[in-house]
Structure formats: structure tokens, C-alpha cells
Amino acid sequence: MAIHFFFFSRFLRSSSYRFQSNRFISTHHHHQHQQPFSPPPHIQQRRVVITGLGLLTPLGCGVETTWKKLVNGNCGVKEISINDLKMNSFDKETQLYTFDQLSSKVAAIVPVGSNFGEFNEDIWLNSKEHRSIARFIAYALCCTDEALRDANWFPTELDKKERTGVSIGGGIGSISDVVDAAQMICEKRLRRLSPFFIPRILINMAAGHVSMKYGFKGPNHAAVTACATGAHSIGDAARMIQFGDSDVMVAGGTESSIDALSLAGFCRSRALSTKYNSTPLEASRPFDCGRDGFVMGEGCGVMVLEELEHAQERGAKIYAEVRGYGMSGDAHHITQPHTDGRGAILAMSRAIKQSGLHPDQVNYVNAHATSTPLGDAVEANAIKSVFCEHATSGALALSSTKGATGHLLGAAGAVEAIFTILALYHGIAPLTLNLNRPDPVFHDNFMPLTTSKEMNIRAAMSNSFGFGGTNASLLFASAP
Predict the structure, then answer these.
(1) Which terminus of the chain has fewer CB atoms gathered within 10 Å of its CB, N or C?
(2) pTM for this one?
(3) Rounded to whole angstroms, how far apart are CA atoms 143 and 119?
(4) ∠ Cα 446 366 51 (to 5°)
(5) 407 is known as an active-site residue
(6) 435-473 pLDDT, tens per residue?
(7) Which of 221, 232, 368, 390 is catalytic?
(8) For this structure, is 227 an active site residue?
(9) pLDDT at residue 28 is higher than 60
């Protein structure tokens, strides 16, 4: 029996060898007679412009409301209440205990109501058809509505809908829905779980709902890169237009994470401000010596990006052009940037290189600076390294708008990109709030703005850096 098996296995090996040899010969022979494909068609790089804007921030609902309050030095940070924790399914004692355990008691929350400049929950959240929509998705729908009206882009023809895409990302989705679902497991009520639970928490559903509402059949994309999400969503969308995947893109970032578990998580990672619980308006202080962590914020920013000729042909208002998009990774630490700031330097340098502009031609930088002790100083040094004498001479205006809005996580990059575009469009660089004692990294003329400044801005940059060491810089220039 053993001898039979021995010969049989040898036979198998030799046949498989013959089979493989034959296959090798035939495929080799096959390749010799076939010409390689010619290279893919050359894609003429197309120019991308911004034709519509939509904003929802702790300063208010709408571009006009938010921008006015930002440049006037208003602040959207407030003391949180137990209701802000979104723990309605828990008993009062658990709610009080949880609230008491939070080391940070401030947040930047979108104002809700039916007045002008407030987010109307009855329209966007509470109607019957919105049961499948979590708050962060509602924020994206609200901002998209404003941006599309601004751009006057409501195509009815199928081919135009097929050439319009959506790129809206988020940072952490709907954590409060996850908490409520976990509570159902604890109480053995899992059969009561909503069939909409999964569609409510998936981050790409913001882009999904926008495309479904307007029938946009172009690229449907959702970046998730922590606090760089909004910037990556816009940069990726611009690439899709440049590459010819679409003519129009609805792009941005959204976040609604003011809830017990999100706050607790960031408190435990020691990322949040805790020194200013009794003076919330002073809690978010980018670049200031007294900074001790960021303030959790929420909101959304959405813009309409469009191929230049497409926008010109239909007579659209053009705010600015997307000139550069730079990306990099720190490859260093889960939450902290490397002290050499190399990641930020690479992202900014790559955006400038792609734009074809000289660093000296950039007039304003909207810094990522979140009000954390390490991050702000590293970014300031990186800006000085990229812009050199242009920065130290005082010719480069610099600010972080997070003093007014807190840190909007997945929405920050999009909201701040819109602030940067508005600075360009209106010729006003917005101020940095709560900058009383600037970090020692600043000196002489290299100093963030402490009051909004009217100036001629022809090119401006917006920085966004996220956990995991992901970095993105967007460079905008005045309308061609």
C-alpha cells in the first residue's frame, strides 16, 4: 500500500510539473505575440472653482450669520448642561453621576430654534421621513441646501445629475445612537432596536442622503480622517473634477458629537480644556500661553466645487479657485504630532508646489491650532519653516478661528476652508480669540491676528491635522 502511494505521489508531482511547465510555456508564448496596451488617454488637468457655500456652526446657522459673528469676535462656546449629554434613555441619577464625572464642562454647540440664524430641528430632524437620519446627517442636509441655493445648481437633466457627485465625510458619526443601543442590550430590550440603527451611525450616509435627495449620481465618497476629514473631503472632490470623474461636487464635513460618551472619551485622553469650566468664553484659546486643551464643537461645512468652464458657461458666481491640495502622514504617534512638525511642513509645501505659486504669494493662513499645548507650537514653527521671512516680516496674516467655534472634529477642515474662502472673497482675515499672552514661539512681526484685518488676500491656505498623524492643507486663490 505504501509503495502504491509513493509511486502515485511521484506521478502527481511529475504531472503537476509537466502541467505547470506547459502552462508556463504557453503563457510565455502567448506574451511574446501580444503587443502591450498603449498608455491610457492623457487627461487635461481641469481647473476647479467654488460656486456655493453652506455653514452650520456654534456661531449660528448660515454663512452670513456665522461670518459676521466670526469677524466681530463673537464666541460659540458655552457651559454644557445635563440635557446636552443626550442621555434621555437613562435614569436621572445616572445622568447626574455622568455629568459630575466629566472633567470638561464646556462645549461649542450649534444654536437650535426657529429664529433666523438657528438650526431648525422641526425642518431637518423631527419630521416622519427623517427617522433614519442622525443629527450629523441632518447638519449635512441643511448645509447642502444652503450651498446648492447659493450656487443655483439644481440640475434636472439626467446627464448633469450623473456628472454631479458628493464627497461629505465625518469624524465619529452618531455615538449617542450607539449608547442608546448598548442600553437596550443591558435592559434586555434588543427587539426594540430601530431598524434604522445602522443607517443612522454610518458616516457615509451623510453623502448618501444628499445624493438621494437631489439625485446626484456622480462619485459618492466619504473620507474619515479624524480632524482632517473636512479638508480631505474637499481635496479629494477637487481631484475628482480635475480627473474628469465629475463636473460638479458637493463637498465638506459634518459632525455632531456633543454627547456623554464622546465627551468622556476625549476627557479620558486628556485632550479637552478643563481650566475654564466657569468661564466658557475663554476656554478655547489657540496659540495662547494659558491654553490647556481643545473645546469640543459641532457643526458642518459644505461647498459646491465646479469645473471652471462649466461654472463660467452657466454664469455662476465664483468665490475662489482650489489651487493646491497637500497631504502627509506624521508616522509618529496616535494623537501627538512630532515636535519637528515635518508632517505639517510636507502638507503645506505640497499644496504650494501643486498650486504653482510662490510661498510669498500666500497672504493668509487659517491654522489648524486647536488650543492644545503641543500642537499649536508645532504648527506655528512649521508655518515659520515653510514661509520663512514672509512669515517673520509680518506680511503673512495668520489666525486660528477655533477660539470662536471650538474644535469641530470631522467638520473643522470644511468649516475652516470656508472661512478661508470668505477671507479671500471679502478681503478680511478673521481674528484669533482669547490670545492674551502669545506662545513664546511668536515674536516681533510673526504674530497671529487678535483683531480682524481688512487686507488684499489673493491666496490663502487652510490647515487640518488629525489623530493618527494625518495632515491636509488646502490652498485657495482668488477667482480666475
Answers:
(1) N
(2) 0.92
(3) 10
(4) 145
(5) yes
(6) 999 999 999 899 999 999 999 999 999 999 999 999 999
(7) 368
(8) yes
(9) no
